Amino acid sequence: MLTRMLRFGPALPRLLSNQHARFVSQSKPSSATGSTAVTELHPSAEASGHAEVSPFVKNPDYHGFSSDPVEDEWNMKVGFFLGISVAVVIGGTFIHYLPDYGMRQWARREAERLIVERESEDLPLIGENYYDTNKIILPTAGEE
């Protein structure tokens, strides 16, 4: 398939664009003969009085920014450079400066500070009565 496309060369965009497509109308026929109407999608250049050339025929590397090939390429390069740069730089900066989600970093620093404080006072890191036993309500044997 690729060799066939390469064989046509610069005429390929013209061959691929269907300039003389004919379509059959799906509406009800208006004439007494009852035949379906056949219409031209793109009227021929002689009928319309002027010929529009596809941007792909003038510039095979058309990017959609301008009809001038040089301006089109420069606009494409500038647009992509700025778009990627803005996305990477501003996006990376935004992600870097997001707040501490769930205060995880603060909790880690606070735990390390308490460990150092308790070790310096020769206290256990966690006491054996972590919860206040007077506030714990246990069910009676009958409620189980």
UniProtKB/TrEMBL annotation:
The answer to whether keyword Cell cycle applies is no
Its main subcellular localisation, reduced to a broad class, is: mitochondrion
ATP-binding found in the keyword field: no
Location in the cell reads: Mitochondrion inner membrane
The UniProt keyword set, sorted, is: Electron transport, Membrane, Mitochondrion, Mitochondrion inner membrane, Respiratory chain, Transit peptide, Transmembrane, Transmembrane helix, Transport
Give the way it sits in the membrane: Single-pass membrane protein
Instruction: Family membership, please give it.
Output: Belongs to the complex I NDUFB11 subunit family.
- Summary of subunit composition and partner proteins: Complex I is composed of 45 different subunits. Interacts with BCAP31.
Q: What is this protein called?
A: NADH dehydrogenase [ubiquinone] 1 beta subcomplex subunit 11, mitochondrial
Organism of this sequence: Parambassis ranga
Q: What is the lineage of its organism?
A: Eukaryota, Metazoa, Chordata, Craniata, Vertebrata
